[in-house]
Fold this sequence. Notes:
The protein is mainly α and about 400 residues long.
Amino acid sequence: MDQTAPRPAPWYYAAAIVIMSGCLLAMVNFGVRSTFGLFTKPISEAHQWPREIFSLAMALQNLIWGLATPVAGALADRFGAARVMIGGALFYAAGVFTMAIAPTPMLFHVGGGLLTGVGIAMSSFGIVMAALGRLVGPERRSWAFGIATAASSMGQFIFAPVAGALIAAYDWATALKVMAALSLLMLPLALPFLNPRANAVHATADEADMTLRQALACAFSHGSYILLVFGFFVCGFQIAFVTVHLPPYLAGHGITPEFAGFAIAFIGLFNIIGSYAAGVIGGRGNKRIPLSLIYLIRSVVVTLFITTPITNTTTLLFTSALGLLWLSTVPFTIGLVAVMFGTRYLATLYGFVFLSHQIGSFLGVWLGGRIFDATGSYDPVWWMGVVLGVFAFLVHLPIREHAAPAFAKG
Length: 410
């Protein structure tokens, strides 16, 4: 027997298994956090806290998630995605459990803000998609980004009604503890990402060989990258505000919590269609034009929603339309980063774009609670999102969709 023959790779290293595991991991990551808006009202009422307390925790979560994402991306680019994902699952579960038992705003902010924010960053679809981008060829890369994003949306469709039902049948604390336990499902799903092909640390044949420091310097001197950073800020502002404040906004218009959970699930259901379609469209050519149009159409959809009577029917129409536009920005955005800078440092470079997204998320969530407490209305923040959507539409149009000169192998 030839003792030098290489051992066969484990079955779970197969590309199909890695892609499926990545989709399921993204589904759990996104599914758990998509439920947090359902807890805004019951937690605030149970502790007799102003709504800003919960809003600040969620805003801190989004900000810390953004700050930790480039670090998590750099660690994944250097040491592999699987190890980072496993650590993220543990932080995530600890944070959500702490939210359930926290007796004070400070501890609630530590759990819901710090621990959960770090956990989400280390196990988010940014890490997943960077690994998948290395695993598949350029011709299938946009498709992989789309299918991973679509799978995360399935998490929202599944987890939101489950959390709503648990809150109604038991209580909010029990529901949060169940969500914490479910987040640990990410641990076994991370194992296939030990596949060496998903953790390439060398430049590919068509990429220039450079250090991470050089890559960051080149990216931040590239005008199209800067425009992408500014544009993704708007996505964060809009999405995070809706995630946290749509349920209490609907409650204020007579919509029941159970129906609100159902409506949020519709965002996830239609996001599956929108995200997958974005991956397919992005793989066929131009990415910046459809990306720009998504922001403009979002502004139109929000304007129609807040200027018409809020009913069960208009709520479902709104969440269905918004679902088509929800995460469909992500395959185009990370796809543009890959086009401009390749895949070697994709997790890190996308991480900095995503940091801008999360700064927007922080402001959207925090301002929602702050302005509601001050005025009793969410309307000013809705209109901020409309104006920012038009801004994002204009910002993405000048992006140049080709490899940055410093990153192309000369």
